[in-house]
Design brief:
Length: about 170
């Protein structure tokens, strides 16, 4: 297993819309394991393949419930799609690809996602609360959307200014 480098904003590769996975083989299984190790090493609650420069519709999420140990319940979703959502919540989010920023983001409170496992078998799941946020955040990455895009233009500009200053 390999810890993969995580792309950092403003890398343009983070804006690429990912392609669906069509081949379910040992290469896919290896990539998923590398993504899991990378997410746990970071550490993060989720990681999308575009963040490690693989423009494929793959995410891994830490599906731990209250009281469970981090990393003991990691789930891989291949070609995930949100098929239903309801409610609303505001959640303080951060991102492994967006350094030194957390911000409140409006998200659905519950989402139903359909996906495939690493052998190509379809499944669906429902995420509520924090799990719903993680799923929406990671699926956004597959569509070239960053959590920054959900912030006001003022907050985006302040972050850009901070980045420009840090580069000097």
């Amino acid at each position: 297993m390999t810890i993969l480098p995580i792309l950092k904003y403003p890398d343009p590769r983070l804006r690429i819309v990912s392609k669906a996975v069509t081949t379910f083989d040992e290469n896919l299984a290896e990539l998923v394991m590398d993504m899991k190790e990378t997410m746990l090493d970071a550490p993060g609650a989720g990681l999308a393949a575009p963040q490690v420069d693989r423009p494929l519709r793959i995410i891994v999420v830490d599906w731990a419930q209250e009281g469970q140990e981090y990393g003991q319940n990691v789930l891989a979703l291949i070609n995930p799609e949100i098929v239903a959502s309801e409610g609303a919540q505001v959640f303080d989010e951060g991102c492994l690809s967006v350094l030194d920023l957390t911000a409140n983001v409006d998200r659905a409170a519950l989402v139903e996602v359909q996906a495939k496992d690493i052998s190509g078998q379809p499944f669906s799941l429902i995420g509520e609360g924090r799990q719903a946020v993680i799923l929406q955040h990671e699926i956004d990455h597959l569509n070239g959307v960053l959590f920054l895009d959900h912030l006001s233009s003022l907050k985006q500009e302040l972050y850009e200014k901070k980045l420009r200053k840090a580069r000097k």
